[in-house]
Design goal:
- This protein is an alpha/beta fold.
- The protein has one domain (5-204): Phosphoglycerate mutase-like (Rossmann fold, 3-Layer(aba) Sandwich), CATH 3.40.50.
- It contains four helices and six strands; from the N terminus they run βαβαβαβαββ.
- A six-stranded mixed β-sheet has the order 3-2-4-1-5-6, with helices on both faces.
- α2 (59-72) links the parallel β2 (50-55) and β3.
- α3 packs across α4.
- The protein starts with a strand and ends in a 16-residue tail after the last strand.
- 37% of the residues are buried.
- The model has no long low-confidence stretch (mean pLDDT 91).
Length: 211
Amino acid sequence: MPADLIHLVRHGEVHNPDRILYGRLPGYHLSELGHRMADLAAASLADRPLTALYASPLQRAQESAQPWVDRYKLDIVTEERIIEPHNWFEGGRLRFPQVLGQPRAWPHLINPLKPSWGEAYVSIEARMLAAVDEAWSAADGGEIVMVSHQLPIVVVARSVKKMRLAHDPRNRRCTLSSITTLARDGDVFVEVDYQEPAGDLLAASIDLGAV
């Protein structure tokens, strides 16, 4: 029996005192605040019939999945397809619009609709939806949690709403430890809920990891 709902959960705040665009770089773990955020996300679904838990292989996603293990005794299934996209800015401190003044960055800014600085939106869409679809099909009923990253979740949300995938990164609706919930409607997925369980902690957080 397929899943009833799929909850796409973003990881909590990352320990990043140097304010690096960390992307897929190893060694970026949750901050103390990030652990609190992840626990709030898990607690927000305490009354749900959760049957499976997936997480990106990156440390911050694995740590954000741990409260679901502790609370619901679910094993983490590491899913490579829900990982953060690669991008050229990874490891630096470049920011928009300041990056426009860096000549070495110009070749990577030529097509923001793709985007030219990293993995194409259509590629992210394809791998994310394939992972979601397989998890939905493999479920033994109930509901699924998939712990991923901001851009992959945003791309899925825009895709199921038939919105253009290209967008302004500064205007994304996917805060730390937020939960975007999908249901199946015939042959397609639709968004049925969005919540921010860690909303009260966001003002004290730093969120600089994505492009």
